[in-house]
Amino acid sequence: ALRASFATKAQKESQNFHRHFLPQAAYKVAVLGAAGGIGQPLALLIKMSPLVSDLHLYDIANVKGVAADLSHCNTPSQVKDFTGASELPNCLRDVDVVVIPAGVPRKPGMTRDDLFNINAGIVRDLVSAVADYCPNAFIHIISNPVNSTVPIAAEILKQKGVYDSKKLFGVTTLDVVRANTFVAQKKNLKLIDVDVPVVGGHAGITILPLLSKTRPSVSFSDEEIEKLTVRIQNAGTEVVEAKAGAGSATLSMAYAAARFVESSLRALDGDGDVYECSFVQSDLTDLPFFASRVKLGRNGVEALIPSDLQGLTEYEQKALEALKEELKASIEKGVAFAQKQA
Ligand code: NAI
């Protein structure tokens, strides 16, 4: 018993030593579009992360107040505000993760593709600055249509000679968050345990929840599968309609984006067990970009996880084939836009 208590004491001392003397993990995160509906709650959630030392908030207007407000939270990270293109370089220098929720959201009746004309140019310009000032950062694209804005970002980075496909991510975490919530509700499961991979893209039928791969394993009737799939695909529109002109999902989106940031930071910090779904350059299908589960590591995507796409049900296989045409067209639209600018 004495020995055991010594061991415990020694362990405690060692833990204390580590707590006091090892440097805290310290990463710099920038949010571009930080004064917006997503940007503000996202900045708040990132401000709560113990892994962040510096939080840089950029927008074309109204970001000073957001930063002043957040800076009073007594969590470790330093908050700084940056307004307008002239302050973008200082916002980006030495940043480890750049999150981009800049751009206009949907109003009732709009598809994500209706946002293309405005958001394509915004993403082009912001990613171009990222290429110049923090080309090694992880880039998280939230601005819609993600199916096109991610290919635009890739082309811009290629034009600048700094494209690293492993570090460019379309944020589709919200689709997974929604799928987990709806499945847990429907099946009366403990939410924390449920994990549904969502593959394909991030718009309408390109969002494909693989319900047969739900963990823990659950069985669904054909009707449940049809209803859940359609609800997950239209969940964004559910929010757009409920907000009735005041925008699209912001709070659940901020929650999902913060989860993806935290996962990225854990991966950067050397955690070897970080998996998330994301829309990335991919060779899992014949499409150049595809959302699937990926393993995250210090250098970004360490591996694509092909197993979710194996042994699909007939319903999922058909849905996968059916989404390819739309997803391909959205990818090509993004690539064409970026190449026209070159
Ligand atoms: P919002 O209109 O509330 O905020 C957008 C912010 O971007 C504004 O503060 C605006 O000033 C800023 N902005 C505009 N042009 C900019 C530029 N050139 N540089 C920096 N900032 C700029 O919109 P909200 O609701 O925050 O949505 C943002 C985007 O996120 C939309 O494109 C929306 O469709 C998308 N979205 C994506 C989701 C996803 O799952 N990936 C889910 C929900 C929304």
From TrEMBL:
Enzyme class: oxidoreductase
Annotated ranges, domain Lactate/malate dehydrogenase C-terminal: 172-337
Catalytic activity: (S)-malate + NAD(+) = oxaloacetate + NADH + H(+)
Residue intervals of the Lactate/malate dehydrogenase N-terminal domain: 28-170
Entry keyword set: NAD, Oxidoreductase, Tricarboxylic acid cycle
GO BP of this protein: malate metabolic process; tricarboxylic acid cycle
GO cellular component: mitochondrion
GO molecular-function terms, A-Z: L-malate dehydrogenase (NAD+) activity
Enzyme Commission number(s) from the entry: 1.1.1.37
Subunit field text: Homodimer.
Family under the similarity heading: Belongs to the LDH/MDH superfamily. MDH type 1 family.
Name used for this protein in its record: malate dehydrogenase
Biological source species: Clitoria ternatea
Included stretch of the parent chain: 67 to 408 of 411
